[in-house]
Amino acid sequence: MHSNKIPASIEMSSKQVLDTANLVDIAPPFTRIYITHVGTQTTNILTAAAKKITDAGYRAVPRFAARHLTAKKALKTRIKKWCKNRELKVR
């Protein structure tokens, strides 16, 4: 079966996600929403944004900027937190 839909994604900052009253209907269900990491957000803020995206029926995708991570341990900690809270599914 052929679909006329083009696979797409959008990108938002965690602040945009958290400041948006209603994320439903901003894109088709299951659209990937990339959460930009600008270096000022805590893991808790990024996780809250991912939860809101997931609860609205989309797929939260983290974008970890390597320049903002000080050590490999910081990346591991962030990934574990996302997976623990089930806002991100590792594929």
Structure described in brief:
The protein has 91 residues and is an alpha/beta fold. 35% of the residues lie in helices and 16% in strands. A three-stranded parallel β-sheet has the order 1-2-3.
Measured between the Cα atoms of the first and last residue, the distance is 25 Å
List how many beta strands DSSP finds.
Answer: 3
The H-and-E topology, N to C, reads as EHEHEH
Tell me about the biggest sheet? 3 strands, parallel
Strand content: 15-25%
Can you give the helix content as a percent range? 25-40%
User: What is the residue-averaged pLDDT?
Assistant: 80
Radius of gyration: 14 Å
Q: What is the domain tally?
A: 1
Q: Spans with pLDDT under 50 lasting ≥5 residues?
A: none
What structural class do you assign from the helix and strand content? alpha/beta
Oligomerization: single chain
Molecular shape: elongated
